[in-house]
Amino acid sequence: MGESIVGENAVVEDYQLRQREYLLQISRAMTSRLDLPSLLRLILGSAVEMLGGEIGLIALRGTDGQFSVRAGSGIPAAVLPLFKPLWADLPMYHGRTELSHWRIPDLPARLALVSAAVGITLRQVVALPLILEDSLEGIIYVFRTRDHAFSPNDRLVLASFADQAAIAVRNARLYQQVSDEKRRLDAIIAHSADGIMILDRYHRVEVINRSLSRLSGWPVERARGRLCHEILALRDRQGRPLPHTPCPLFAETGRAPSYHEGDLVRANGHIVTVGVTCTPLYDEEDQLINVICNVHDITRFREAEEMKSTFISVISHELKTPVALIKGYAGTLRREDADWDQQTLREGLSIIEEESDKLASLIDNLLDASRIQAGVLKLEMSDLSIPKLAQKVASRLQTQTAHRFILEFPEDFPVVIGDSARLEGVFYNLLTNAIKYSPQGKEIRIGGYADAHEVVVYVSDQGIGIAPDEQERLFLPFSRLDSGLSRRTPGVGLGLFLCRAIIEAHGGRIWVESEPGHGSTFTFTLPRADTVAT
Protein backbone atom coordinates (compact mmCIF):
# COMPACT_ATOMS: atom_id res chain seq x y z
CA MET A 1 0.00 0.00 0.00
CA GLY A 2 2.82 2.34 0.98
CA GLU A 3 4.67 1.53 -2.24
CA SER A 4 1.55 2.39 -4.23
CA ILE A 5 1.23 5.80 -2.56
CA VAL A 6 4.90 6.52 -3.07
CA GLY A 7 4.57 5.57 -6.73
CA GLU A 8 1.53 7.81 -7.21
CA ASN A 9 3.34 10.71 -5.52
CA ALA A 10 6.33 10.17 -7.80
CA VAL A 11 4.07 10.26 -10.85
CA VAL A 12 2.39 13.48 -9.61
CA GLU A 13 5.73 15.09 -8.87
CA ASP A 14 7.06 14.07 -12.27
CA TYR A 15 3.91 15.51 -13.93
CA GLN A 16 4.26 18.74 -11.98
CA LEU A 17 7.95 18.96 -12.84
CA ARG A 18 7.16 18.50 -16.53
CA GLN A 19 4.45 21.14 -16.23
CA ARG A 20 6.93 23.63 -14.77
CA GLU A 21 9.56 22.86 -17.39
CA TYR A 22 6.98 23.24 -20.11
CA LEU A 23 5.79 26.49 -18.51
CA LEU A 24 9.36 27.82 -18.56
CA GLN A 25 9.80 26.91 -22.23
CA ILE A 26 6.50 28.44 -23.23
CA SER A 27 7.23 31.60 -21.23
CA ARG A 28 10.46 32.05 -23.16
CA ALA A 29 8.66 31.47 -26.44
CA MET A 30 5.95 33.99 -25.55
CA THR A 31 8.41 36.78 -24.76
CA SER A 32 9.89 36.52 -28.27
CA ARG A 33 6.53 36.69 -30.09
CA LEU A 34 4.94 40.08 -30.84
CA ASP A 35 2.27 39.16 -33.38
CA LEU A 36 -0.89 39.13 -31.25
CA PRO A 37 -2.96 36.47 -33.12
CA SER A 38 0.04 34.12 -33.25
CA LEU A 39 0.82 34.80 -29.58
CA LEU A 40 -2.76 34.06 -28.50
CA ARG A 41 -2.73 30.76 -30.38
CA LEU A 42 0.54 29.84 -28.65
CA ILE A 43 -0.83 30.80 -25.21
CA LEU A 44 -4.05 28.88 -25.67
CA GLY A 45 -2.45 25.78 -27.16
CA SER A 46 0.08 25.69 -24.34
CA ALA A 47 -2.58 26.16 -21.64
CA VAL A 48 -4.76 23.35 -23.03
CA GLU A 49 -1.75 21.02 -23.32
CA MET A 50 -0.42 21.77 -19.81
CA LEU A 51 -3.73 21.13 -18.14
CA GLY A 52 -4.73 18.13 -20.23
CA GLY A 53 -7.82 19.84 -21.62
CA GLU A 54 -9.58 19.24 -24.92
CA ILE A 55 -11.01 22.70 -25.64
CA GLY A 56 -9.89 26.24 -24.86
CA LEU A 57 -10.49 29.86 -25.73
CA ILE A 58 -9.23 33.32 -24.86
CA ALA A 59 -11.57 36.31 -24.57
CA LEU A 60 -10.03 39.81 -24.54
CA ARG A 61 -11.58 43.14 -23.65
CA GLY A 62 -11.88 45.50 -26.63
CA THR A 63 -11.60 49.27 -26.76
CA ASP A 64 -15.37 49.43 -26.21
CA GLY A 65 -15.02 47.53 -22.90
CA GLN A 66 -16.74 44.40 -24.25
CA PHE A 67 -15.17 40.93 -24.29
CA SER A 68 -14.86 38.90 -27.46
CA VAL A 69 -13.19 35.63 -28.42
CA ARG A 70 -9.76 36.25 -29.92
CA ALA A 71 -8.49 32.65 -30.04
CA GLY A 72 -10.03 29.17 -29.87
CA SER A 73 -8.70 25.62 -29.73
CA GLY A 74 -10.70 22.48 -30.48
CA ILE A 75 -13.81 24.54 -31.23
CA PRO A 76 -15.34 25.30 -34.66
CA ALA A 77 -15.11 29.04 -35.33
CA ALA A 78 -18.83 29.20 -36.11
CA VAL A 79 -19.86 28.27 -32.54
CA LEU A 80 -17.41 30.56 -30.68
CA PRO A 81 -20.04 33.33 -30.20
CA LEU A 82 -22.21 30.79 -28.30
CA PHE A 83 -19.67 30.86 -25.44
CA LYS A 84 -20.61 34.46 -24.62
CA PRO A 85 -22.52 33.57 -21.39
CA LEU A 86 -19.18 32.64 -19.79
CA TRP A 87 -18.02 36.26 -19.72
CA ALA A 88 -21.34 38.11 -19.55
CA ASP A 89 -21.67 40.41 -16.51
CA LEU A 90 -18.25 39.59 -15.03
CA PRO A 91 -17.52 41.00 -11.57
CA MET A 92 -15.20 43.97 -11.26
CA TYR A 93 -11.55 43.38 -10.51
CA HIS A 94 -10.08 45.66 -7.83
CA GLY A 95 -6.40 44.75 -7.76
CA ARG A 96 -4.07 41.82 -7.51
CA THR A 97 -4.76 41.40 -3.75
CA GLU A 98 -8.23 40.11 -4.63
CA LEU A 99 -7.06 37.75 -7.34
CA SER A 100 -7.37 34.67 -5.12
CA HIS A 101 -10.99 35.59 -4.37
CA TRP A 102 -12.01 36.58 -7.90
CA ARG A 103 -14.52 34.12 -9.32
CA ILE A 104 -16.98 34.00 -12.19
CA PRO A 105 -20.39 33.70 -10.49
CA ASP A 106 -22.61 30.73 -11.41
CA LEU A 107 -19.86 29.24 -13.56
CA PRO A 108 -21.34 25.69 -13.51
CA ALA A 109 -24.72 27.01 -14.67
CA ARG A 110 -23.09 29.11 -17.37
CA LEU A 111 -21.07 26.07 -18.48
CA ALA A 112 -24.22 23.96 -18.74
CA LEU A 113 -25.93 26.69 -20.79
CA VAL A 114 -22.99 26.89 -23.20
CA SER A 115 -22.69 23.09 -23.39
CA ALA A 116 -26.30 22.79 -24.45
CA ALA A 117 -25.96 25.62 -27.00
CA VAL A 118 -22.87 24.23 -28.75
CA GLY A 119 -23.86 20.57 -28.51
CA ILE A 120 -20.63 19.55 -26.75
CA THR A 121 -20.58 17.96 -23.28
CA LEU A 122 -18.37 20.31 -21.27
CA ARG A 123 -17.95 18.84 -17.77
CA GLN A 124 -15.04 20.85 -16.32
CA VAL A 125 -13.73 24.37 -16.86
CA VAL A 126 -11.00 26.45 -15.32
CA ALA A 127 -10.96 30.21 -15.98
CA LEU A 128 -8.18 32.57 -14.95
CA PRO A 129 -7.98 36.28 -15.66
CA LEU A 130 -5.30 38.06 -17.66
CA ILE A 131 -4.38 41.05 -15.52
CA LEU A 132 -2.68 43.98 -17.21
CA GLU A 133 -1.64 46.72 -14.76
CA ASP A 134 -4.39 45.86 -12.27
CA SER A 135 -7.01 45.81 -14.99
CA LEU A 136 -8.97 42.77 -16.16
CA GLU A 137 -8.19 42.61 -19.87
CA GLY A 138 -8.90 39.01 -20.71
CA ILE A 139 -9.69 35.47 -19.53
CA ILE A 140 -8.21 32.08 -20.43
CA TYR A 141 -10.71 29.20 -20.45
CA VAL A 142 -9.67 25.52 -20.54
CA PHE A 143 -12.39 22.83 -20.80
CA ARG A 144 -12.53 19.10 -20.24
CA THR A 145 -15.25 16.84 -21.60
CA ARG A 146 -14.50 14.13 -19.02
CA ASP A 147 -15.29 14.19 -15.29
CA HIS A 148 -11.67 14.45 -14.15
CA ALA A 149 -11.64 17.73 -12.19
CA PHE A 150 -8.94 20.35 -12.38
CA SER A 151 -6.67 20.19 -9.31
CA PRO A 152 -5.46 23.11 -7.18
CA ASN A 153 -2.05 22.55 -8.78
CA ASP A 154 -3.60 22.89 -12.24
CA ARG A 155 -5.06 26.21 -11.21
CA LEU A 156 -1.75 27.32 -9.70
CA VAL A 157 0.15 26.39 -12.87
CA LEU A 158 -2.41 28.20 -15.02
CA ALA A 159 -2.27 31.24 -12.71
CA SER A 160 1.50 31.44 -13.12
CA PHE A 161 1.11 30.92 -16.84
CA ALA A 162 -1.59 33.63 -17.00
CA ASP A 163 0.79 36.16 -15.42
CA GLN A 164 3.38 35.47 -18.10
CA ALA A 165 0.72 35.46 -20.80
CA ALA A 166 -0.65 38.80 -19.61
CA ILE A 167 2.78 40.41 -19.94
CA ALA A 168 3.22 38.91 -23.40
CA VAL A 169 -0.25 40.08 -24.47
CA ARG A 170 0.46 43.59 -23.22
CA ASN A 171 3.74 43.73 -25.12
CA ALA A 172 2.09 42.38 -28.27
CA ARG A 173 -0.73 44.92 -27.99
CA LEU A 174 1.72 47.77 -27.46
CA TYR A 175 3.72 46.56 -30.45
CA GLN A 176 0.52 46.39 -32.51
CA GLN A 177 -0.43 49.92 -31.44
CA VAL A 178 3.02 51.20 -32.37
CA SER A 179 2.86 49.34 -35.69
CA ASP A 180 -0.62 50.72 -36.43
CA GLU A 181 0.53 54.23 -35.54
CA LYS A 182 3.59 53.85 -37.77
CA ARG A 183 1.41 52.69 -40.66
CA ARG A 184 -0.85 55.69 -40.15
CA LEU A 185 2.10 58.07 -40.05
CA ASP A 186 3.66 56.40 -43.08
CA ALA A 187 0.37 56.78 -44.96
CA ILE A 188 0.08 60.44 -43.95
CA ILE A 189 3.66 61.15 -45.01
CA ALA A 190 3.42 59.14 -48.23
CA HIS A 191 0.17 60.77 -49.39
CA SER A 192 0.76 64.30 -48.09
CA ALA A 193 0.27 66.96 -50.74
CA ASP A 194 3.39 68.73 -49.49
CA GLY A 195 6.86 67.29 -49.86
CA ILE A 196 8.24 65.72 -46.67
CA MET A 197 11.82 64.69 -46.01
CA ILE A 198 13.18 63.21 -42.77
CA LEU A 199 16.92 63.52 -42.15
CA ASP A 200 19.08 61.67 -39.64
CA ARG A 201 21.46 63.44 -37.26
CA TYR A 202 24.08 63.53 -40.00
CA HIS A 203 21.60 65.26 -42.34
CA ARG A 204 21.27 62.27 -44.63
CA VAL A 205 17.85 61.38 -46.06
CA GLU A 206 15.98 58.65 -44.19
CA VAL A 207 12.51 59.23 -45.66
CA ILE A 208 11.27 61.11 -48.70
CA ASN A 209 7.61 61.03 -49.70
CA ARG A 210 6.04 60.79 -53.15
CA SER A 211 5.24 64.49 -53.40
CA LEU A 212 8.83 65.51 -52.79
CA SER A 213 10.02 62.78 -55.14
CA ARG A 214 7.84 64.26 -57.90
CA LEU A 215 8.83 67.80 -56.97
CA SER A 216 12.57 67.17 -56.87
CA GLY A 217 12.73 64.56 -59.62
CA TRP A 218 14.59 62.16 -57.29
CA PRO A 219 13.24 58.57 -57.10
CA VAL A 220 12.47 57.56 -53.50
CA GLU A 221 14.99 54.72 -53.37
CA ARG A 222 17.81 56.77 -54.91
CA ALA A 223 17.21 59.65 -52.50
CA ARG A 224 17.70 57.61 -49.32
CA GLY A 225 21.12 58.03 -47.76
CA ARG A 226 22.01 61.19 -49.70
CA LEU A 227 22.78 64.54 -48.11
CA CYS A 228 19.87 66.93 -47.97
CA HIS A 229 21.50 69.52 -50.24
CA GLU A 230 21.69 66.92 -53.01
CA ILE A 231 17.90 66.47 -52.94
CA LEU A 232 17.07 70.11 -52.23
CA ALA A 233 19.58 71.85 -54.49
CA LEU A 234 18.33 75.34 -53.68
CA ARG A 235 19.40 78.56 -55.34
CA ASP A 236 18.62 82.16 -54.50
CA ARG A 237 16.86 84.58 -56.86
CA GLN A 238 20.15 85.42 -58.53
CA GLY A 239 20.71 81.74 -59.33
CA ARG A 240 23.50 81.31 -56.78
CA PRO A 241 23.56 77.95 -54.93
CA LEU A 242 23.05 77.98 -51.18
CA PRO A 243 26.15 76.94 -49.19
CA HIS A 244 26.75 73.19 -49.33
CA THR A 245 27.17 72.62 -45.62
CA PRO A 246 26.00 69.19 -44.29
CA CYS A 247 22.52 70.70 -44.36
CA PRO A 248 22.23 74.32 -45.44
CA LEU A 249 18.59 74.38 -44.35
CA PHE A 250 19.15 73.67 -40.68
CA ALA A 251 21.06 75.80 -38.18
CA GLU A 252 22.55 73.84 -35.25
CA THR A 253 22.35 76.91 -33.03
CA GLY A 254 18.59 76.94 -32.61
CA ARG A 255 15.74 74.63 -31.68
CA ALA A 256 12.94 76.58 -33.32
CA PRO A 257 11.77 75.58 -36.80
CA SER A 258 13.52 77.50 -39.56
CA TYR A 259 12.02 78.62 -42.87
CA HIS A 260 13.86 79.01 -46.16
CA GLU A 261 12.81 79.88 -49.70
CA GLY A 262 14.69 79.18 -52.89
CA ASP A 263 14.56 77.82 -56.40
CA LEU A 264 14.77 74.03 -56.42
CA VAL A 265 16.88 72.72 -59.27
CA ARG A 266 15.30 69.40 -60.17
CA ALA A 267 17.23 66.37 -61.37
CA ASN A 268 16.08 67.11 -64.98
CA GLY A 269 17.27 70.72 -64.76
CA HIS A 270 13.82 72.32 -64.41
CA ILE A 271 13.32 74.83 -61.63
CA VAL A 272 10.47 75.25 -59.14
CA THR A 273 10.28 77.67 -56.24
CA VAL A 274 9.80 76.09 -52.82
CA GLY A 275 9.41 77.10 -49.20
CA VAL A 276 11.10 74.71 -46.75
CA THR A 277 10.30 74.48 -43.04
CA CYS A 278 12.88 72.49 -41.06
CA THR A 279 12.09 71.27 -37.55
CA PRO A 280 14.79 69.58 -35.38
CA LEU A 281 13.94 66.71 -33.02
CA TYR A 282 16.04 66.05 -29.90
CA ASP A 283 16.15 63.13 -27.47
CA GLU A 284 16.07 63.33 -23.67
CA GLU A 285 19.85 63.76 -23.60
CA ASP A 286 19.60 66.84 -25.83
CA GLN A 287 21.06 65.01 -28.82
CA LEU A 288 19.77 65.69 -32.31
CA ILE A 289 17.75 62.71 -33.62
CA ASN A 290 16.15 63.90 -36.83
CA VAL A 291 15.34 66.95 -38.89
CA ILE A 292 11.85 67.07 -40.43
CA CYS A 293 11.70 69.12 -43.62
CA ASN A 294 8.32 70.18 -45.02
CA VAL A 295 8.63 71.37 -48.62
CA HIS A 296 5.83 73.43 -50.17
CA ASP A 297 5.72 74.39 -53.85
CA ILE A 298 5.31 78.18 -53.89
CA THR A 299 5.99 78.61 -57.59
CA ARG A 300 2.55 80.04 -58.28
CA PHE A 301 2.89 82.51 -55.39
CA ARG A 302 6.28 83.62 -56.72
CA GLU A 303 4.77 83.88 -60.22
CA ALA A 304 1.90 85.93 -58.83
CA GLU A 305 4.38 88.22 -57.11
CA GLU A 306 6.43 88.57 -60.28
CA MET A 307 3.26 89.07 -62.30
CA LYS A 308 2.26 91.88 -59.97
CA SER A 309 5.64 93.56 -60.47
CA THR A 310 5.42 92.99 -64.22
CA PHE A 311 1.89 94.40 -64.26
CA ILE A 312 2.96 97.58 -62.50
CA SER A 313 6.01 97.97 -64.72
CA VAL A 314 4.24 97.22 -68.02
CA ILE A 315 1.11 99.20 -67.28
CA SER A 316 3.15 102.17 -66.10
CA HIS A 317 5.14 102.09 -69.34
CA GLU A 318 2.15 101.50 -71.62
CA LEU A 319 0.09 104.24 -69.95
CA LYS A 320 2.94 106.70 -69.90
CA THR A 321 3.45 106.83 -73.67
CA PRO A 322 -0.12 107.66 -74.83
CA VAL A 323 -0.71 109.98 -71.89
CA ALA A 324 2.49 111.85 -72.68
CA LEU A 325 1.52 112.14 -76.37
CA ILE A 326 -2.01 113.28 -75.58
CA LYS A 327 -0.75 115.82 -73.08
CA GLY A 328 1.98 117.00 -75.43
CA TYR A 329 -0.25 117.50 -78.45
CA ALA A 330 -3.08 118.99 -76.43
CA GLY A 331 -0.68 121.43 -74.79
CA THR A 332 0.87 122.34 -78.12
CA LEU A 333 -2.46 122.88 -79.90
CA ARG A 334 -3.82 125.12 -77.15
CA ARG A 335 -0.85 127.50 -77.16
CA GLU A 336 -2.15 131.07 -77.48
CA ASP A 337 0.97 132.33 -79.17
CA ALA A 338 0.63 129.90 -82.11
CA ASP A 339 -1.69 130.09 -85.10
CA TRP A 340 -2.00 126.51 -86.38
CA ASP A 341 -3.29 125.76 -89.82
CA GLN A 342 -6.13 123.27 -90.36
CA GLN A 343 -3.81 120.47 -91.54
CA THR A 344 -1.67 120.69 -88.39
CA LEU A 345 -4.77 120.78 -86.19
CA ARG A 346 -6.23 117.71 -87.92
CA GLU A 347 -2.97 115.77 -87.56
CA GLY A 348 -2.61 116.70 -83.89
CA LEU A 349 -6.22 115.87 -83.09
CA SER A 350 -5.91 112.60 -85.03
CA ILE A 351 -2.93 111.59 -82.90
CA ILE A 352 -4.82 112.53 -79.71
CA GLU A 353 -7.79 110.44 -80.89
CA GLU A 354 -5.54 107.50 -81.83
CA GLU A 355 -3.72 107.53 -78.49
CA SER A 356 -7.04 107.88 -76.64
CA ASP A 357 -8.26 104.76 -78.47
CA LYS A 358 -5.13 102.94 -77.33
CA LEU A 359 -5.81 104.00 -73.76
CA ALA A 360 -9.44 102.90 -74.02
CA SER A 361 -8.38 99.54 -75.49
CA LEU A 362 -5.81 99.03 -72.74
CA ILE A 363 -8.36 99.86 -70.07
CA ASP A 364 -10.93 97.52 -71.67
CA ASN A 365 -8.36 94.71 -71.73
CA LEU A 366 -7.50 95.27 -68.09
CA LEU A 367 -11.19 95.26 -67.16
CA ASP A 368 -11.77 92.06 -69.15
CA ALA A 369 -8.75 90.42 -67.51
CA SER A 370 -10.16 91.39 -64.12
CA ARG A 371 -13.59 89.97 -65.02
CA ILE A 372 -12.03 86.73 -66.26
CA GLN A 373 -10.04 86.23 -63.07
CA ALA A 374 -13.16 87.00 -61.04
CA GLY A 375 -15.17 84.52 -63.13
CA VAL A 376 -17.78 87.09 -64.22
CA LEU A 377 -17.04 87.42 -67.95
CA LYS A 378 -20.44 87.67 -69.67
CA LEU A 379 -21.21 86.77 -73.28
CA GLU A 380 -23.99 88.13 -75.51
CA MET A 381 -24.71 85.11 -77.72
CA SER A 382 -26.23 85.21 -81.21
CA ASP A 383 -25.88 83.56 -84.62
CA LEU A 384 -22.89 84.90 -86.52
CA SER A 385 -20.71 84.28 -89.57
CA ILE A 386 -17.04 83.76 -88.76
CA PRO A 387 -15.85 84.56 -92.34
CA LYS A 388 -17.70 87.92 -92.31
CA LEU A 389 -16.30 88.75 -88.86
CA ALA A 390 -12.76 87.93 -90.02
CA GLN A 391 -13.24 90.01 -93.20
CA LYS A 392 -14.46 92.97 -91.12
CA VAL A 393 -11.39 92.99 -88.87
CA ALA A 394 -8.97 92.38 -91.75
CA SER A 395 -10.46 95.26 -93.77
CA ARG A 396 -10.10 97.63 -90.83
CA LEU A 397 -6.47 96.66 -90.26
CA GLN A 398 -5.54 96.60 -93.97
CA THR A 399 -5.46 100.42 -94.03
CA GLN A 400 -2.81 100.41 -91.28
CA THR A 401 -0.32 97.86 -92.63
CA ALA A 402 1.50 96.70 -95.75
CA HIS A 403 0.79 93.06 -94.91
CA ARG A 404 -1.56 91.17 -97.23
CA PHE A 405 -4.55 89.39 -95.70
CA ILE A 406 -5.77 86.26 -97.50
CA LEU A 407 -9.09 84.69 -96.44
CA GLU A 408 -9.47 80.95 -97.02
CA PHE A 409 -12.97 80.08 -95.79
CA PRO A 410 -15.16 77.67 -97.82
CA GLU A 411 -18.48 79.04 -99.08
CA ASP A 412 -20.51 76.59 -96.97
CA PHE A 413 -18.75 77.49 -93.73
CA PRO A 414 -21.40 76.91 -91.00
CA VAL A 415 -22.92 79.50 -88.69
CA VAL A 416 -21.76 79.55 -85.05
CA ILE A 417 -23.37 80.89 -81.89
CA GLY A 418 -21.15 83.39 -80.14
CA ASP A 419 -20.54 86.85 -78.80
CA SER A 420 -19.80 88.95 -81.90
CA ALA A 421 -17.95 91.72 -80.06
CA ARG A 422 -15.79 89.29 -78.07
CA LEU A 423 -14.90 87.16 -81.10
CA GLU A 424 -14.11 90.30 -83.07
CA GLY A 425 -11.64 91.08 -80.28
CA VAL A 426 -10.10 87.62 -80.69
CA PHE A 427 -9.54 88.23 -84.42
CA TYR A 428 -8.19 91.71 -83.70
CA ASN A 429 -5.64 90.38 -81.20
CA LEU A 430 -4.52 87.49 -83.41
CA LEU A 431 -4.18 89.68 -86.52
CA THR A 432 -2.38 92.56 -84.78
CA ASN A 433 0.05 90.04 -83.29
CA ALA A 434 0.66 88.61 -86.75
CA ILE A 435 1.33 92.13 -88.02
CA LYS A 436 3.68 92.97 -85.15
CA TYR A 437 5.82 89.86 -85.47
CA SER A 438 5.93 89.49 -89.29
CA PRO A 439 8.09 91.35 -91.80
CA GLN A 440 6.30 94.07 -93.77
CA GLY A 441 4.56 92.88 -96.95
CA LYS A 442 4.27 89.23 -95.91
CA GLU A 443 1.03 87.27 -96.18
CA ILE A 444 -1.29 86.61 -93.22
CA ARG A 445 -3.75 83.82 -93.94
CA ILE A 446 -7.12 83.58 -92.19
CA GLY A 447 -9.24 80.52 -92.81
CA GLY A 448 -11.12 77.60 -91.40
CA TYR A 449 -13.00 74.41 -91.93
CA ALA A 450 -15.75 72.46 -90.15
CA ASP A 451 -16.42 68.94 -88.98
CA ALA A 452 -19.59 67.38 -87.58
CA HIS A 453 -19.31 69.05 -84.19
CA GLU A 454 -17.25 72.23 -84.42
CA VAL A 455 -15.59 74.78 -86.66
CA VAL A 456 -11.82 75.26 -86.74
CA VAL A 457 -10.38 78.73 -87.45
CA TYR A 458 -6.72 79.61 -87.98
CA VAL A 459 -4.55 82.72 -88.38
CA SER A 460 -1.20 81.94 -89.98
CA ASP A 461 1.74 84.33 -90.44
CA GLN A 462 5.27 84.23 -91.84
CA GLY A 463 6.89 85.87 -88.84
CA ILE A 464 9.69 85.19 -86.36
CA GLY A 465 8.05 82.07 -84.90
CA ILE A 466 7.90 80.93 -81.28
CA ALA A 467 10.22 78.56 -79.40
CA PRO A 468 8.49 75.39 -78.04
CA ASP A 469 9.15 76.23 -74.38
CA GLU A 470 7.47 79.64 -74.81
CA GLN A 471 4.33 78.51 -76.61
CA GLU A 472 2.17 77.56 -73.60
CA ARG A 473 3.41 80.55 -71.61
CA LEU A 474 2.08 82.86 -74.32
CA PHE A 475 -1.49 82.43 -73.04
CA LEU A 476 -0.63 83.57 -69.51
CA PRO A 477 -1.40 87.17 -68.50
CA PHE A 478 1.41 89.72 -69.04
CA SER A 479 3.51 87.13 -70.87
CA ARG A 480 5.41 88.14 -74.01
CA LEU A 481 8.02 86.59 -76.26
CA ASP A 482 11.60 86.98 -75.10
CA SER A 483 13.05 88.38 -78.31
CA GLY A 484 14.50 91.64 -79.55
CA LEU A 485 11.50 92.30 -81.79
CA SER A 486 8.97 91.71 -79.01
CA ARG A 487 10.86 94.03 -76.70
CA ARG A 488 10.62 96.78 -79.33
CA THR A 489 6.95 96.05 -79.95
CA PRO A 490 4.40 97.77 -77.68
CA GLY A 491 1.96 95.67 -75.69
CA VAL A 492 1.20 94.43 -72.18
CA GLY A 493 0.86 90.70 -72.89
CA LEU A 494 -2.88 90.45 -72.27
CA GLY A 495 -4.13 89.78 -75.81
CA LEU A 496 -3.62 86.01 -76.01
CA PHE A 497 -4.73 85.58 -72.40
CA LEU A 498 -8.02 87.26 -73.30
CA CYS A 499 -8.29 85.22 -76.50
CA ARG A 500 -8.03 81.96 -74.63
CA ALA A 501 -10.51 83.04 -71.95
CA ILE A 502 -13.06 84.14 -74.58
CA ILE A 503 -12.69 81.00 -76.71
CA GLU A 504 -12.93 78.71 -73.67
CA ALA A 505 -16.01 80.65 -72.49
CA HIS A 506 -17.57 79.72 -75.84
CA GLY A 507 -16.76 76.05 -75.23
CA GLY A 508 -13.81 75.98 -77.64
CA ARG A 509 -10.03 75.52 -77.54
CA ILE A 510 -7.09 77.61 -78.73
CA TRP A 511 -3.47 76.65 -79.39
CA VAL A 512 -0.41 77.62 -81.38
CA GLU A 513 1.85 75.70 -83.74
CA SER A 514 5.15 77.32 -84.55
CA GLU A 515 8.86 76.95 -85.23
CA PRO A 516 11.41 79.74 -84.74
CA GLY A 517 11.98 81.49 -88.06
CA HIS A 518 9.10 79.73 -89.82
CA GLY A 519 6.06 81.68 -88.69
CA SER A 520 3.19 80.76 -86.40
CA THR A 521 -0.34 79.43 -86.77
CA PHE A 522 -2.88 80.20 -84.06
CA THR A 523 -5.91 77.93 -84.20
CA PHE A 524 -9.16 77.96 -82.24
CA THR A 525 -12.38 75.96 -82.32
CA LEU A 526 -16.00 76.89 -81.70
CA PRO A 527 -19.14 74.71 -81.48
CA ARG A 528 -21.36 74.72 -84.57
CA ALA A 529 -24.73 76.42 -84.16
CA ASP A 530 -26.57 73.24 -85.18
CA THR A 531 -24.85 71.25 -82.38
CA VAL A 532 -25.48 73.71 -79.53
CA ALA A 533 -28.36 72.64 -77.25
CA THR A 534 -31.15 75.18 -77.05
Which helices and strands, and how do they pair?
Layout lengths: L1 H30 L4 H16 L3 E7 L5 E7 L33 H12 L5 E8 L4 E9 L7 H40 L3 E5 L5 E4 L1 H7 L3 H4 L4 H4 L2 E2 L22 E8 L5 E12 L5 E10 L1 H35 L8 H33 L6 E4 L1 H13 L5 E5 L7 E4 H17 L6 E8 L3 E7 L7 H4 L12 H5 L6 H11 L4 E5 L5 E8 L7
Parallel strand pairs: 12-14
Antiparallel strand pairs: 1-2, 1-4, 3-4, 5-6, 5-10, 7-8, 8-9, 9-10, 11-13, 14-15, 15-17, 16-17
Helix pairs in contact: 1-2, 1-4, 2-4, 8-9, 9-14, 10-11, 11-14
Summary of the model, kept short:
The chain is of the alpha+beta class and 534 residues long. It is 43% helix and 21% strand. Helix 2 runs antiparallel to helix 4 and helix 8 (299-333) packs antiparallel against helix 9 (342-374).
Q: Can you tell me the overall shape? A: elongated
User: What is Rg?
Assistant: 42 Å
Overall helicity: 40-55%
- SS-derived structural category: alpha+beta
Beta-strand content estimate: 15-25%
Give the averaged pLDDT, no decimals: 80
